[in-house]
User: What shape does this take?
Amino acid sequence: MHELRWEILNKLDKPQDIIDVLLENRGVKGKKAKTDFLAPKHPEKFSVEELGINKKSLGKATGRIKKAIKDKEKIVIYGDYDADGVCATAILWEKLHSLGANATPFIPDRFEDGYGLNKKQISKLLLVEAGKTKNRGLIITVDNGIVAFEAISEANKLGIDVIITDHHEKKEKLPKAFAIVHTTKTSGSGVSWILSQELKKDGKGIELAAIGTIADQLPLVGFNRSVAKYGLEVLNKTSRLGLRKLYATAGLLEKTIGTYEINFAIAPRINASGRMGSAMDALRLLCTTNPSRAEKLATDLNNLNIERQKKVDEALALAEGSLINQTSSLIFLSHEDYHEGIIGLVASRITEKYYRPTIVLSKGEKVAKASARSIRGFSIIQAVRAAEEFILEGGGHEMAAGFSIEVANLKKFQNKIEAHSKEILTRELLERKINVDCELGFNQINRELYNSLTSFEPYGVGNPAPVFVSRDIKVVSSKKVGRDSKHQKLILEQKGKKINAIAFNWDNPIEENISLVYRLSLNEWNNKSELELMVRDIKNE
Ligand SMILES: [Mn+2]
Assistant: This one.
């Protein structure tokens, strides 16, 4: 697997300030942008215009919501079953509830209803209130709705107003909703938070917006960086009972909650409810004020997550078997045994391992549900839209998409999307790369540098942890460590200066002279701490 191309981002030879280089590599240019990046302002300080949201529509939405609160109209918040959608629902529901609204959250069932505002649900949702002259009822979508044309025209027919809040890619035409609060610059929970702050500015719910934004893989720059930074601060001292219990079941109580903890422990548990059961349980967990209920929901979620892991492993084994027959650069896998709730996870694991765009389909009797993941430089939503005539419903982004398709059309769809991708997926695009910020000499590595790097946190999509390269390194010693001796601890030397390094899961031979790519980390034990290079790649010279 180990063919990694080192892309050195900083091409200049002459010495420069390292912090400046890192900022430029992240596209942060100009003095003001640089200070803003290193000391992000609070999300409350962003103007609506900066976020790409139409101010007039936002005003129209808040006006309608305030009227609904005053008239005691029934409001349904229509969410989504992934971590972003659940957090988006929780943020708006808590806000409306605190303002005395008659608001009910609704998260569709992945298996029964599918993604997004659904025509069939509309009349059921507001059954009692809808149709009355003064009390028409209001549906507010969060993290979905921007392509729900049919459902919204159905609502209009029934006299129900719909406010769309969403961050997914819109089509050329927009649904005829009462108001649309839309931007692709943040997550569904980010949009929900912005709307809720328009109703009442109190900063509440920012920690949930951080979970949604990080889990939805939004680039952590600008507004999202602020949401992540300030939301993580709140998450580390949250008194939400459900989150505290979730931390306990995930072994996070003693840990600092960062983007990693959200991606690999918190979001998977929230997602597990929507994949294996009902996402309403995750919503209840986030919002509950009852300790024993929090405990039970957290345990249930943890068990669902274990069940989910098992299903993913089974599906991956099945996938590996059929990968042998793949000839196209775009991986296309369809089978009855792929559990619908986990196809997205399987697609991302395959993409990660083989570094190719991947579509995994769960075949039903008549309809197949699909989830797709992509690699940098290949827009999967564009690829799907190139074969749009076969798509029943669905949507997505450059890097991920979800849709459904008639089983009878699978082959035709596959041919069309493979033909589309063939032209775009060049050899260069399919090469796995690691972005390296700049070259460092060992004499430049010190505590001061390490400390100044911390102002680049939180790391994530769009703002990766700084990666450096050092060359002409002598390996003084190497020792296998860890369970199964999977890791190697190294002592390295350059021009007389020695530094420790750790290479996780490294079984390639390491020779005496190397170049290496690494992150800088602080190894802490027994109240002592020492700088250490966390190896990402090694080339023997
Ligand atoms: Mn989302």
Summary: The longest strand covers residues 468-481. The longest helix spans residues 291-323. The chain has 17 helices and 18 strands.
